[in-house]
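HUMAN: You are asked to prepare a plain-text protein record giving the amino acid sequence and the backbone structure tokens, both parts labelled.

ASSISTANT:
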Amino acid sequence: MEFLQEYGDFAETGDDEEEIEVQANSRVSEANTENSCLRDDAVRQVYLVTYSQANLDMFPTRRSFAEAVVCSFSGTTANVLQWVCCREPHIHGGSHYHLAIKLDRCQRWLQSKQYLQSQHDISVHFSNLHHNYFSAWKYVTKSDEHVLESEGHPDLWNSKPPKTNKACSRKRQSRNEQRENHTRSRSTSLDSEHDDEESTCSEKETNKNKRKGRRKRLSAFELSEIIVERGIQTRTELLAFANKQKMEGKTDIAEFIVNRGPRVVAEVLSTAWELQTAQEKIVRLEKISH
């Protein structure tokens, strides 16, 4: 049991701080979603679709909207592998739908948008902010308690974004900051001074949020909880589960397995089930002794 303490110390921050980052990223993404259009010729395998100010008479449920989006790809060469859909209250009133969808091959998005426009007279937005399915899934599932996943959807819960997401986000933020700096340089000196003050405050706040919101790595205890909850009995089953999640962009379990090595993984597996069955064994022993 010593390894649980030894390897549990790798956790860098608590769940409250992780939630801070989720909420902060959600606010930023919400503000940028409708201003982040894909190019007409963009070709992707994963899309995040947003329907703002949704007509709830036409699409009263998450499933009804999801089925419409799935149908919009039926005339293409791609098949839909999975999707996740949420409905959230809009900041200006009404509701909007978010749907993350993954295809079995890369496909242009414009045909889907045109189909929804012609068949349902609605205009949806295809975002360019999310570069893998897990990133889009994380955004869709951030707050809706009744989020709906397609049948046979990969289990991505109890997870954290992969490092590639953070790297891409940093690059995107850097590009945005460069554009903002260029705009400020062309303004009047008075406006520039005002912008510089706001920029300084913004950078300080961003750095503060980064320090507060740094996500923790998966601990041995957290992995043991996942093992028991999913009924994973062997290393091979755990490897298969980790690989399936890694294919969607979720890498925390795979990173644990590779970084900690087979000995630690074996100890986590055995100890997880020892903890789970310990009380039952004590009860049986007490019955035998009496």
Residues 1-34, 159-165, 186-199 have pLDDT under 50 and may be disordered. The longest strand covers residues 95-108.
